[in-house]
Amino acid sequence: MMQGDDGAQLQCSVVVERLNSSGQATKRQVIRKAAVLLGRNEFQEIILRVHNGKVTESYTLKEFQLFTRFAKDGKCTVKLLPENVQVLISDCPPHLLNIFLKTLSIKHQAWQTSKPMTDREKLKACLPRSFETISPLQQKDVQKANELRSKVNAPVLSKGLVVRTGNKMTGGPPGQQVKRQRTDCDSSPLKALHPSKKPTLSLPAARKLNKEQAAVLSAVLSGKNVFFTGSAGTGKSFLLKRIVGSLPPKSTYATASTGVAACHIGGTTLHNFAGIGSGSAPLEQCIELAQRPGVLQHWTSCRHLIIDEISMVEAQFFDKLEAIARCLRRSTEPFGGIHLIVCGDFLQLPPISKEKDKATFCFQVRKSWRKCIHLNMELTEVRRQTDQSFISLLQAVRVGRYITEEVTAKLIKSAYHKIERDGILATRLCTHKDDVELTNDNKLQQLPGSVRVFEAVDSDPALVKTIDSQSPVSRLLQLKVGAQVMLTKNLDVQRGLVNGARGVVVDFQPGKLGLPRVRFLCGTTEALKPERWMFKAGGGLYLSRQQLPLKLAWAISIHKSQGMTLDCVEISLARVFERGQAYVALSRAKSLEGLRVMDFDPHVVRADPDVLHFYSKLRKERLLLQVSFWLYASFVLTVGPNVL
Ligand SMILES: Nc1ncnc2c1ncn2[C@@H]1O[C@H](COP(=O)(O)OP(=O)(O)OP(=O)(O)O)[C@@H](O)[C@H]1O
Ligand SMILES: [Mg+2]
């Protein structure tokens, strides 16, 4: 399953089609498990090799079209123009496809400016046939490509490479019911080559994984069932997104315990995946529910199951999933042999308990948890905050101990922090969700001026509830000039337009649409346009919502804030009712300066003793690999989990 991310090779499915002059396929070869390799021949020309396990076909990439619109779903098409052959690539880990496509386009651009040999020169050269894998992209390749781009004004792409991102490509995923629009090609690496936009190229994955994260990724890619944990802000979800992008899309399900958290990693809720409702019915009934058309396919096609925010998954629910997986997949292996990648911090919010009893954590169903998880790993480098003393303060709150007088004093003093800037107020994190709606509604009403209502375009209005449960934006968004808002999507990480960025509506653009302009804390004022979110629903169905990437941000609930990074927050902890709740609230802030705690009392800080015991036991038994220890981890991977 391992494949390098050097941009030279892919493991995927391939269809090779020979086309006639009117573009119809006259011959079609389907290769379910193919290896696609980029290399150079003896004349330094770029070669695409497709290997089906027995035979290798080679294509010289001189004049070709690339269709990359669905690259983020792991699909693309290379159409070789003189040969009239198209190679349709699918089920490819999107992150690797991204690097592959970028490598191909940048190397091809460089090749074109390097005076390719004529046929005559080739004949004369009498070189022996050869094939060498293409070298990984380097900063200098990117620089050269950028220099070339800055020299050329009009279409930077010379005649060999034509980039298409239109509908013509491979079509959507099977069963997909949504017609995608142009925004879907956002993540395409080749968008960067679109002549009209001319943005600067950069190496793929500009935000690199740190060593700890890379070690977890390699443990996952080695096929081990991994649970990785770490304090708030250690980049667990950041890493999960990379993991999702490194696994084959058809058989990978990215899920999280809550809709908001699922959205952060571009996935769906675990409940949605499982299709067993709340899971409180007896096992036999749950098995029946999971066999419904549309749901059964999740269970049978899933090879890699990713679960974020595991702390909020109820133990009995996890246990049921484990049993259902074995039953439906007719396998005696733990979790029916599904490769599990589980992540979260048990010292954050626990599962919501329906009855008065305390809800139990997944690790408390010791049998299935222990059976399922091969490796426990811990990320230790906090990325959300940079100030070491604030990081230490949060660590103290996390474990519910060491709340020294100094810590208390700092938090009490924060009540006087003036964090309002440029008309942008602090977001109030509320313990109870009724307060959230009330606060946002009241504040909006109190603003002068008329309300503008923006209605979402849903792919399937009948399924609005399902969409609501997974979407970070509501169907109706009401705004006024002066409304406090929060961005709900990463629009431009470099410019600080990231998920959670805080701003204020400054005006509405003239015209029918009247789109809002928002001034953000990072200093940028941006006119926002609708964005699209895709959700996987049952039966391979895709749902989508198109809406402005904004939500009102006078207040949000602590439960909804889990997983978020926030610019400026105000917290009242008087009504904290849950273990880990104060920690989740405080750890959303990027800095102490951006935080105001109205009424700090050390008694509200509570860490769950069962969790502390679980973590300390793992450590004592040397089962929790601090990944800074990553060489040791790679030793374990080669030797196998049983040595642990
Ligand atoms: N390797 C990295 N390079 C750059 N930024 C990173 C990296 N890892 C994490 N970050 C950034 O750090 C912040 C926190 O990351 P993330 O939300 O993934 O943490 P988390 O461990 O999931 O936190 P929580 O437990 O609160 O959900 C995010 O803004 C993320 O973009
Ligand atoms: Mg997270």
UniProtKB/TrEMBL annotation:
Its cofactor is Mg(2+). GO terms for cellular component: mitochondrion; nucleus. HAMAP family: PIF1. One of its GO terms (biological process) is DNA repair. Belongs to the helicase family. PIF1 subfamily. The keyword DNA repair applies. This is ATP-dependent DNA helicase PIF1. SUPFAM superfamilies: P-loop containing nucleoside triphosphate hydrolases. Residues 581-600 bind DNA. Residues 464-508 form the DNA helicase Pif1-like 2B domain. The gene is PIF1. The lineage of its organism: Eukaryota, Metazoa, Chordata, Craniata, Vertebrata. Residues 164-189 are annotated as: Disordered. It comes from the Eukaryota. It comes from Oncorhynchus mykiss. It is found in: Nucleus; Mitochondrion. It catalyses: ATP + H2O = ADP + phosphate + H(+). Keywords: ATP-binding, DNA damage, DNA recombination, DNA repair, DNA-binding, Helicase, Hydrolase, Isomerase, Mitochondrion, Nucleotide-binding, Nucleus.
